[in-house]
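in:
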C-alpha cells in the first residue's frame, strides 16, 4: 500500500495533498483505512491448522441497495492434526446455507467476528474438504460502492474492494491473515454494460439472465488480502510488455487524465524485470482508479487499485506525477505479492522494498541526481517523524499502525544501506536469490538476513539488529580541524541521539571524502563509527578545498556538519546532495553575498529541488534583499515546481511587498495549484477590500479538482469573516460534485467555524439545517465531518440529533461518526451555563427532534423508491 504520508504532513490542507507529487508512496496515509479495533499485547503469526488450496467467490452486487449476495467455496486440507472445527473470519454476514463435502457439519457458531464450523468427527490430516457458504451482506468495510445516489457523478458508478490489512472478512467469510496462500477465482454478475476486473486471467464473459457473468481465475497462490474485485463503468487504455497485457481503467468523468497516468507502466515493468532478474509473475497487469479509495494504491495480484483523487490533467504542469505511485505499486507485484510478509510485524518486507525500488526507478528514468533526491526526501520523512520504535515491531494494537515511516522510507533506506555495503551486483544476486527461493511463499526478516549472509559470506547480525530490531537512527555531530604542521585532518564524531532500551549506539561505516586542489578525484576513507564519541585522523598531501561526509549518500544518519570557510562555495558546485546541504547553510545567513548565491541557484541550478530549496532559504532570511530577490524571481520561472516554491516563499513572509507581488501574479498565473497557493495565502489579510473581492471571485471559480475554490474557503476561514457564510453555503449546496470528498468535508468544518459567530445569524440556522442533512449522507467521511462541524457551530440545538448518534455502541469496531458526535456533544454541553438556557433549549430540541424524525422518514422512503441504477 502506498505512500501515502509524510511530505503532506508538513501541510494540513487538501491543497498540500494535491501538490505532493509523491503522495501515493506513503503520504496517502491520510487515505489509509483507520484502525478498526485496538487490541493490546504483542502480536504473533496465527496458527495454520489447515492448508487452504482454493477459494471461489460467486457474487452479485446490488448497486441500488449497496449489498452483496454471494457464495464462498473453500477447499482445504488439515495440515498435521485432526481438525474438529474450522474457524473463519466473518463480520456482519447473513448466512443462508452451508454445505460441506468430505466431512459432516455438526454445528455452526456465529460470533461478533468469527464463523466457526464444527464437524461431527475430526477431519484427518491431508483429507480434502470443501465448504460452501451462501450469504448476503451490506458491507461496512472491505467492499465499497460509489453511485450517484451517494453523491458521485452520473456514469461513474463503481464498486471496489480493499482487503489490507484484514477487511475482506466484512464481505465474505475467509481466513483473513497473510500467512496462508491459495489460488482463487471470482465470478461477478453485473449489468451488461459494466466492466469487471479481478485477479488472474479472464476465463469467460457471458450472459447470465438479465446480467453478465465475468469469470476471473488466479491460478497462482496469493494471500487473502490480495483478492480483488472492481466493477462498474470505466474508460480503458491498453498496452503490452511482450505478451503481458496491460490496462489502465479510470472513471469516465476523468478519461482525459488516463494517458498521463499510464505513461510509465510499461517502462517500469521492463526495468523491474531486469533489476530483479525475476520476470513479472502474473497473467496481466491492470490498474483501476477508484473513487474515494482508502489508500494511494493497493497492490492486488495482477490488478492494482488506486485513488482517482491522484489523477491530474495537463493544467498542473509538472507539479503532479503518478510515476511514484505506479512504480511503488508495480514493485509490490514482486515484493508483497510474489513473496509476502508472514505477519504484520515484518511489513517492511512489503513496503520498504516497494519504496526502494521506486527510488531505483527514479535513477533509471531521470538519473543519479533524481535518485539521490528521492533518498533525501525519504530521509527527511524519517527524521521528521523521529519514531524510535523498531521497524520489526510486535506491539502494534491494529495492523494499520504499522504503515508509517518505519516501514516505508526507513525500510527503503535500510535496503539502500545494504546495497551500498554489498555493491549493486552482489545486492542484485542476493535479491534474486531471495525472490526465487521464497517465490509464492511467505517470509520473515530472517529469510532476507539469511540470504544476504549466504550470498555475501559476511555477517550482518549487527546491521539487522540495530536497524530492524531496534529503533531510531544515528544523529551525528561532526567537527573538522586541519593541522598544517602535520598535514592531517581531524574529524570528530559524536553520536547525539537519545539512548534508550530501543535506541542504542549505532555502528556505521561512515565515508568521508577530501577534495585536494590539482587532483582529479577526491581522496576517500571510511570511518568506523561505533562509540559515543571518536576522533579520526587523515594524512593528506595538502589542505583540502572540500570535506564531504558520506559523499555518495549511503548512510541514514542525521548529520550536523558545517563546512568551514570557503568550503561552502566549493560544495555549491558538487553533487545534488552537497548543493542541498550548502543551501541550508546559506539560509542561516543574511549577508548580501549569501542572498546573491541563493538567487543565482534559484535562477539557474540544473536540478529543480536545489532551486526550490534555495527559494525557501531566501524566504527564511526574509530581509529586504531576500524579499526583493524572491519578488524578482517570480516572473521568469518556467518550471512550475520552482514557481510554486517562490510563491510559497513569498506567502510565508508577512510583508506588503510580498503580498503585492503575489496579488499581481495571481492575475496571470494559469496553473490552478499555484493559484490556489496564492489564494490560500490571502487568509492572512482580513479587512482588505480588494482581497475580499478576489476571494469571492475565487469561491465561485472552477479549476482542476476545484483547488482554487477550496483554497478560497480555507482563506475565508482564516480571515474568520462571518459575512461570507451565505456565499460558502450557496457554493456547497449548488455544486457538491465539483469537490473531492475530503475537500467538501473540510469545507463543512470551515463553514461551521465561520457560522458560530453571532454576526452570522440568521445564516447559522441555515448552516445547522444543512449540516444536519449531511448526517444522513451515504458517504461516511461527510457524515463524520458533519458531526464534527455541528460541534464547531456551537449551536446547542444540534444536541437533538447528535446525542442519538453519540450513544454507546455494542460494536467493537471504530466508528468515526459516533466518535465525532460524542466529541461535539461534549463541546456543546460544556457551553450550557444556566437552568433557564437548559429549559429553553429542551423545548427547541423537542421541536427539532420531531422535524428530524420527519426528515429521516422522508429519506428512508426516498431510498426505498429509488430506481435501479442506470449508466
Amino acid at each position: 500500500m502506498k505512500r501515502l504520508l509524510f511530505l503532506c504532513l508538513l501541510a494540513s490542507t487538501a491543497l498540500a495533498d494535491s501538490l505532493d507529487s509523491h503522495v501515493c508512496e506513503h503520504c496517502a496515509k491520510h487515505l489509509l483505512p483507520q484502525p478498526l479495533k485496538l487490541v493490546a499485547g504483542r502480536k504473533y503469526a496465527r496458527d495454520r491448522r489447515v492448508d487452504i488450496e482454493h477459494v471461489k467467490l460467486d457474487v452479485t452486487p446490488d448497486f441500488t441497495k449497496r449489498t452483496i449476495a454471494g457464495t464462498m467455496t473453500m477447499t482445504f486440507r488439515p495440515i498435521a492434526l485432526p481438525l474438529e472445527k474450522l474457524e473463519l473470519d466473518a463480520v456482519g454476514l447473513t448466512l443462508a446455507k452451508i454445505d460441506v463435502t468430505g466431512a459432516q457439519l455438526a454445528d455452526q457458531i456465529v460470533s461478533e467476528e468469527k464463523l466457526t464450523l464444527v464437524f461431527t468427527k475430526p477431519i484427518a490430516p491431508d483429507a480434502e474438504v470443501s465448504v460452501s457458504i451462501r450469504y448476503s451482506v451490506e458491507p461496512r468495510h472491505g467492499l465499497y460502492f460509489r453511485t450517484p445516489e451517494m453523491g458521485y457523478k452520473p456514469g461513474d458508478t463503481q464498486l471496489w474492494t480493499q482487503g489490507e490489512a484484514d477487511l475482506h472478512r466484512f464481505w465474505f467469510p475467509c481466513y483473513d491473515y497473510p500467512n496462508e496462500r491459495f489460488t482463487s477465482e471470482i465470478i461477478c454478475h453485473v449489468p451488461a454494460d459494466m466492466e469487471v476486473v479481478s485477479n488472474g486471467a479472464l476465463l469467460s464473459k457471458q450472459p447470465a439472465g438479465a446480467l453478465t457473468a465475468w469469470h476471473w481465475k488466479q491460478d497462482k497462490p496469493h494471500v487473502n488480502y490480495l483478492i480483488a474485485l472492481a466493477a462498474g463503468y470505466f474508460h480503458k487504455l491498453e498496452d503490452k510488455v511482450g505478451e503481458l497485457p496491460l490496462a489502465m481503467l479510470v472513471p469516465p468523468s476523468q478519461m482525459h487524465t488516463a494517458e498521463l497516468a499510464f505513461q510509465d507502466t510499461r517502462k517500469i515493468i521492463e526495468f523491474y524485470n531486469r533489476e530483479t532478474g525475476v520476470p513479472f509473475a502474473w497473467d496481466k497487469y491492470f490498474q483501476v482508479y477508484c473513487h474515494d479509495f482508502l489508500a494511494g494504491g493497493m497492490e492486488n495480484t495482477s490488478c492494482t487499485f488506486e485513488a482517482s483523487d491522484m489523477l491530474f490533467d495537463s493544467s498542473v504542469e509538472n507539479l503532479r506525477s503518478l510515476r511514484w505511485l505506479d512504480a511503488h505499486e508495480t514493485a509490490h507485484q514482486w515484493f508483497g505479492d510474489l513473496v509476502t510478509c508472514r505477519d504484520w510485524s515484518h511489513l517492511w518486507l512489503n513496503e520498504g522494498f516497494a519504496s526502494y525500488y521506486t527510488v531505483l526507478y527514479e535513477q533509471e528514468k531521470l538519473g543519479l541526481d533524481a535518485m539521490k533526491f528521492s533518498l533525501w526526501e525519504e530521509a527527511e520523512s524519517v527524521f521528521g517523524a523521529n519514531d524510535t520504535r523498531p521497524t520489526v515491531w510486535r506491539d502494534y494494537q491494529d495492523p494499520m499502525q504499522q504503515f508509517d515511516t518505519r516501514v516505508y522510507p526507513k525500510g527503503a533506506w535500510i535496503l539502500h544501506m545494504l546495497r551500498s555495503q554489498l555493491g549493486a551486483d552482489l545486492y542484485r544476486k542476493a535479491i534474486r536469490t531471495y525472490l526465487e527461493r521464497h517465490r509464492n511463499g511467505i517470509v520473515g526478516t530472517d529469510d532476507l538476513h539469511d540470504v544476504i549472509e549466504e550470498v555475501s559470506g559476511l555477517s550482518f547480525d549487527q546491521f539487522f539488529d540495530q536497524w530492524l530490531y531496534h529503533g531510531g537512527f544515528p544523529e551525528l555531530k561532526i567537527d573538522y580541524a586541519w593541522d598544517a604542521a602535520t598535514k592531517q585532518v581531524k574529524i570528530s564524531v559524536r553520536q547525539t541521539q537519545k539512548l534508550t532500551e530501543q535506541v542504542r549506539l549505532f555502528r556505521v561505516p561512515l565515508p568521508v571524502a577530501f577534495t585536494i586542489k590539482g587532483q582529479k578525484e577526491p581522496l576517500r576513507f571510511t570511518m568506523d563509527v561505533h562509540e559515543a564519541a571518536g576522533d579520526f585522523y587523515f594524512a593528506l598531501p595538502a589542505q583540502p578545498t572540500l570535506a564531504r561526509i558520506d559523499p555518495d549518500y549511503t548512510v541514514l544518519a542525521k548529520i550536523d556538519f558545517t563546512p568551514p570557510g570557503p568550503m561552502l562555495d566549493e560544495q555549491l558546485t558538487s553533487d545534488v546532495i552537497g548543493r542541498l546541504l550548502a543551501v541550508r547553510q546559506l539560509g542561516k545567513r543574511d549577508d548580501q553575498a549569501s542572498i546573491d548565491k541563493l538567487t543565482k541557484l534559484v535562477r539557474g541550478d540544473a536540478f529543480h529541488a536545489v532551486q526550490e530549496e534555495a527559494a525557501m532559504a531566501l524566504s527564511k532570511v526574509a530581509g529586504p534583499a531576500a524579499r526583493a530577490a524572491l519578488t524578482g524571481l517570480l516572473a521568469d520561472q518556467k518550471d512550475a515546481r520552482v514557481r510554486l516554491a517562490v510563491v510559497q516563499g513569498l506567502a510565508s513572509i508577512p510583508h506588503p511587498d510580498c503580498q503585492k507581488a503575489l496579488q499581481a501574479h495571481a492575475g496571470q498565473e494559469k496553473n490552478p495549484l499555484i493559484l490556489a497557493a496564492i489564494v490560500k495565502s490571502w487568509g492572512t489579510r482580513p479587512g482588505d477590500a480588494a482581497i475580499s473581492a478576489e476571494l469571492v471571485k475565487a469561491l465561485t471559480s472552477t479549476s482542476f479538482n476545484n483547488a482554487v475554490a477550496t483554497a478560497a474557503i480555507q482563506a475565508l476561514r482564516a480571515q474568520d469573516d462571518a459575512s461570507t457564510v451565505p456565499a460558502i453555503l450557496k457554493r456547497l449546496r449548488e455544486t457538491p460534485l465539483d469537490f473531492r470528498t475530503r475537500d467538501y468535508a473540510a469545507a463543512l468544518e470551515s463553514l461551521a467555524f465561520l457560522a458560530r459567530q453571532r454576526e452570522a445569524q440568521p445564516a447559522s440556522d441555515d448552516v445547522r439545517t444543512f449540516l444536519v442533512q449531511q448526517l444522513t449522507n451515504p458517504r461516511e467521511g461527510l457524515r463524520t465531518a458533519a458531526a464534527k462541524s455541528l460541534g464547531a457551530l456551537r449551536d446547542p440545538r444540534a444536541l437533538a440529533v447528535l446525542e442519538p448518534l453519540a450513544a454507546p455502541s455494542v460494536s467493537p469496531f471504530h466508528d468515526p461518526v459516533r466518535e465525532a458526535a460524542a466529541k461535539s456533544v461534549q463541546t456543546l454541553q460544556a457551553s450550557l451555563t444556566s437552568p433557564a438556557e437548559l429549559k429553553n433549549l429542551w423545548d427547541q430540541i423537542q421541536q427539532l427532534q420531531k422535524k428530524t424524525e420527519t426528515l429521516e422518514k422522508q429519506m428512508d422512503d426516498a431510498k426505498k423508491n429509488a430506481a435501479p441504477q442506470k449508466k
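note: The radius of gyration is 29 Å.
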